[in-house]
Amino acid sequence: SRPTVMAADSCSWFSALAVGVSLLKCFFISAYRSTDFEVHRNWLAITHSLPVSRWYYENTSEWTLDYPPLFAWFEFGLSQVARSFDANMLQVENLNYASPATVLFQRLSVIVTDVVFIYAARECCRCVREPKGSRDILSQPSFVLAVLLLWNFGLLLVDRILQLCLCIKLPASARRRRERHPGKGALLFAFLLNLKHIYLYVAPAYGVYLLRSYCFTQDNKDGSIRWSSFSLLRLLALGAIVTSVCALSFGPFIAMGQLPQVLSRLFPFKRGLCHAYWAPNIWALYNVLDKTLAVLGVRLKLLEEAELPLASMTGGLVQEFEHSVLPSVTPAVTLVCTLLSILPAAASIWLRPRGARGFLRCLLLCALGSFMFGWHVHEKAILIAILPLSILAVENREDAGIFLILTTTGHYSLFPLLFTPAVLRGFCSILWRLSTCWGWLPWRSPVRLSSRCRRGSRGCPSSPCW
Question: Where are the alpha helices (DSSP H) in 113-231?
């Protein structure tokens, strides 16, 4: 039977899923709070109480403002509402301030802004094709995808408990449904990048794909690039879009001569190779190997313990450290390793663009490569790979199997962030139930993306799926 796009009557079950997950998040309003709660309270105070010229210099708290200016303006907007809840939270000197009204505002601010993510998830679901005549809701690809996105365990854990507002930034990369407007996609991704610079991880995928599929207007018969079809006008248009957004974000600070200070906050290389809680990547294994070699060297009397550097890498602090036996890793080394890891994906999408599906795979590989080899990677960055993989998981069974492995292990790696027994037990139960759901739902009905979301080699990833 001919597949059809998600029917209009699906609003009922989609709304039920959205409302259900929002109610679940409300139950955690009074739950455990990490240091990230104080981070965002401090940023609210900085942007509300201080002039713009002091935002990136303020250091009363150790949690200094280290997000791009566009996100700082977002915090400024939130602070205008926050003063109606408790004006004391907006005082910079009120460190670790957490009144009930402050907690309520911080939690609600994230839950309310979920509407952006819900809209993006809705548009993602509209890009999958439904088997005609299918009445089993559990076999409808759009329903499966809605569950995987709206009920993503990582967003339940990180957004509600750690207050990182990922639900605001991730859907900001959503593209317009109309594929003939790639400029809108570039505009939205530029805004996303200026909200949270962690999305530099996937910038190569966006850049290479748009350059290849938009700036080169034609291919040869064998699918290879036709160099004569290059459009300088389209390249300039994309450049103007990105430059305009960056100018809007960084312009005031450039005018004040503060760009070096802002960049030093955005890229604090002195924080060390690994985060205080190591992300499960190659550098965590490198640290373990170095520690193992150091212990063996001392026991075998090949090394003098007094001459070895202190094992600060295991101290749970954010700082620079030196390895004891293996060569110490510099930011330049991690950059080279990251570029080498994503180069095959970027080269593949350049040589043979495969429409939206090819772009999505490139995006996924860029996210994973950066997670595995990047400098000072946060454990929560794995969500940048898990969410796009959700879309591929409803496309075929092989990707569904990969999704089950990555999402279960990736979300499990976030558990050390929750060290209170009550919260840990609750989220263990949620993860177990959702993992069972993830392992079953995507296998119900492997589907293909609708024709408007996969246009072959000339397609553009302008749908909110991407």
Answer: 114-125, 141-150, 153-157, 166-169, 182-195, 203-210
* Amino acid at position 198, single letter: I
Question: For residue 345, what are the CA distances in angstroms to 225, 235, 388, 465?
Answer: 17, 22, 15, 19
d(CA 64, CA 58): 7
Q: Cα(152)–Cα(426) distance, rounded to whole angstroms? A: 15
End-to-end CA distance of the chain: 27
DSSP letter assigned to residue 60:
S
pLDDT band at 318, cuts 50/70/90? low
143-198 pLDDT, tens digit per residue, is 888 888 888 888 887 754 443 344 444 433 444 433 456 777 888 889 888 988 88
- Name the residue ranges covered by the structural domains of the chain: 4-267+333-458, 274-328
- Six token digits for residue 244: 């305009």
| Tokens, residue 10 | 């699906």
pLDDT category, 315, cuts 50, 70, 90? low
Instruction: Tally the C-alpha atoms within 13 A of residue 36's C-alpha that lie toward its C-beta.
Output: 16
- In degrees rounded to 5, what are phi and psi of residue 242? -65, -45
> Which residue in this structure is represented by tokens 């104080």?
38
